[in-house]
Amino acid sequence: MSAAIVGVAYNRQERRNIRQNIAEMVYEVTTQALADAGLEIRDIDNVVTVSNDFWDGRTISSMAVQDACGSYEKNISTVEGDGTFGAFYGLSRILSGEYQTTLVVAHSKGSESDMSLVTNGMFDQFYVRPLGVDNLISAALQARIYMDTFGVSEEDLALVSVKNHGNALKNPKAQIAKSITVKDVMASRKLADPLKLYDVSPISDGAAAIILASEDFMRRNPQKFRPVFIRGAAFCADAYDLGLRDLARAPALKKAAERAFQMANIRSVEEIDLAELYDAFTYMELMWYEGLGFCPEGKGAEFLKSGATQIDGKLPVNASGGVLSAHTVVAAGLIRIIEACLQIRGEAGEHQVKKEVRNAIAHGINGPCGQSHCVFVLSKEA
Question: Is 313 helix (H, G, I), strand (E, B) or coil?
Fold first, then answer.
């Protein structure tokens, strides 16, 4: 049994969306994903909503959008975390044989939250949380360890920002699109040493949705689906305590990638045509290159400088502008899946890469410093 993504949608990510509340954003992407698939809500067997009580500022945040995503009289499940993990859960439901179609929808309004306060809650409440550590501070710690371990410079990190903000110029749904230089990045305001303003992803509002379908459902419904097949998917988590982890490396990503590649029968990264990675900070993209096996350990900066990750390179990475250009927490990983699907379908618009995309990677993370990783291998063919 195999499964495919047959409908996708996400709205323009903004620093502050004052036109829509959360339910309205969810309704918008749900109806758009259904239209993209050529389906109606009655064709959907079950719904997986992805949200986070801390970011929403309320308990059981997923229940606030059930009517907006048409889950009446359907089996409902909820995931708190990144959208890739919600997609994995939705995939599991299809592969169980119990369901034929699944709607996965994710949302977040970062503008209505306090990033530092919310992400401080990720840490141990007795020993770490009172120190004021949050997502930014822990990332700065990891960046410094990575740089010191492998001799990576701040200018090397800046190259990621230059590439991804430049790619975003061609993506109308990106929040921050700029033509900048390494000098601009280096001159931007320092937020937490060694990370500067242009090294850090913005706070965004947005929502995203995908529709999964079984191969049997597609066979029984002869409308013109444009399926993107899920050939492999896996996730893996590292230790919770930062002190118990090697922050200069990403072993959880390596294991997740190995499992996803094995499931997809991918024998070499040479078979991958494109990647959409969760680059919440510039240094992360370099680390994720290494964890995914795109290049040897500690050689992420050299791989970037080779030009391989450019839109016209042999392995374009974050042609959409990535998370650095728009960071809707919770929905960001699902957007990476959507962008990879659009590239495979040849429908990415102005940021469509020049080469044919047959196999693509979409990636998401949960927890501080990439504690958990989820990897999807998406393909034009089953």
Answer: coil
